[in-house]
């Protein structure tokens, strides 16, 4: 089975540019999560969707960040305008829900390493 | 809200020895505890998980134990191999938080040949 697919794997851009990160969750998973990982702050949840609807975006750092999930197989995280402090690895994860347990593991993609110059 | 602490932050063991990583959580409502392994340049990968109705779970060389009273859980790796070298993250989740995990800060494990 294909795992969570993220693109691009690496992105280097200049400060002020718009950055769009993309994610394809595992087919059949109906929860999708965007995380940011840095040495200083570890893994931070930015936003998560359930059935394509944003449920909690309290982790989004500021209005420069936005996320969409137009359908069950695609999500984007956009930064506009980008700043050097946005440099990090951004992960997308997906998770099934329901079944016998209310808690299900999250499955992560391999991330996008973003560098803002 | 939930707070997860993880110790040690770095751990070096000789190949063949055992490694133990411990996590504590603050919210007694947490009921699901996964462990993730992250290799360089990769995303975290689930290696084992445990739910609050179970005290211990094993999968080959990996085991996890849970002490709900003390609110801590541990990852045990036996007969370590160089390919076990990675960063390990614990996490805690409860129904109160929807689908949110709270991750520990990670432990960098080095297995020396």
Structure description:
By secondary structure, chain A is mainly β. Chain A contains no helices and 11 strands. In chain A, a hairpin with a 3-residue loop joins β4 and β5. In chain B, β9 and β10 form a beta hairpin. Chain B is globular, with a radius of gyration of 14 Å. The model of chain B has no long low-confidence stretch (mean pLDDT 93). Classes of the chains: A mainly beta (117), B mainly beta (113). Chains A and B meet through β5, β9 and β10 of A and β4 and β5 of B.
Number of strands of chain A: 11
Question: Proportion of β residues of chain B?
Answer: over 45%
Largest sheet of chain A: 7 strands, mixed
Q: Which residues of chain B form runs of ≥5 with pLDDT under 50?
A: none
Structural class of chain A: mainly beta
- Fraction in helix of chain B: under 10%
**Low-confidence spans of chain A:** none
Compact description:
With 117 residues, chain A is mostly beta strands.
Question: How is this fold's topology laid out?
Answer:
The complex is a heterodimer of chains A (117) and B (113).
Chain A: E1 5-7, E2 10-13, E3 19-24, E4 31-38, E5 42-50, E6 53-56, E7 65-71, E8 74-79, E9 88-95, E10 107-108, E11 112-116
Parallel strand pairs in A: 2-11
Antiparallel strand pairs in A: 1-3, 3-8, 4-5, 4-9, 5-6, 7-8, 9-10, 9-11
Chain B: E1 4-7, E2 10-14, E3 19-25, E4 30-38, E5 45-51, E6 56-59, E7 62-67, E8 72-77, E9 86-94, E10 102-103, E11 107-112
Parallel strand pairs in B: 2-11
Antiparallel strand pairs in B: 1-3, 3-8, 4-5, 4-9, 6-7, 7-8, 9-10, 9-11
């Amino acid at each position: 089975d294909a795992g969570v697919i993220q693109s691009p794997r690496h992105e280097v851009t200049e400060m002020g540019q718009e950055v769009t990160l993309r994610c394809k969750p595992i087919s059949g998973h109906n929860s999708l999560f965007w995380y940011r990982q840095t040495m200083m702050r570890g893994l931070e949840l930015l936003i998560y969707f359930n059935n394509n609807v944003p449920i909690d975006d309290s982790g989004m750092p500021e209005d420069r960040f936005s996320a969409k999930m137009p359908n069950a197989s695609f999500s984007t995280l956009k930064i506009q305008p980008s700043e050097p402090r946005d440099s990090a690895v951004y992960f997308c994860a997906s998770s099934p829900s329901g079944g016998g347990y209310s808690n299900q593991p999250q499955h992560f993609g391999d991330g996008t390493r973003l560098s803002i110059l | 809200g939930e707070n997860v602490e993880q110790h040690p932050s770095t751990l070096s063991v000789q190949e063949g020895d055992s490694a133990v990583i411990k996590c504590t959580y603050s919210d007694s409502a947490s009921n699901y505890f996964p462990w993730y392994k992250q290799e360089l340049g990769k995303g975290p990968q689930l290696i084992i998980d445990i739910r609050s109705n179970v005290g211990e779970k094993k999968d080959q060389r990996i085991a996890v134990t849970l002490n709900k009273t003390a609110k801590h859980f541990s990852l045990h790796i036996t007969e370590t191999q160089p390919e076990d070298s990675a960063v390990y993250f614990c996490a805690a989740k409860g129904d109160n938080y929807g689908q949110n995990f709270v991750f520990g800060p990670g432990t960098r494990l080095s297995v020396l040949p």
